[in-house]
Amino acid sequence: MKKLLLVAVFAAAAVQAAPQTVTLDVPGMTCAACPITVKTAISKVDGVSKVDVSYDKRQAVVTFDDAKASVQKLTQATENAGYPSTVKR
Question: Is 86's pLDDT higher than 90?
Answer without folding.
Answer: yes
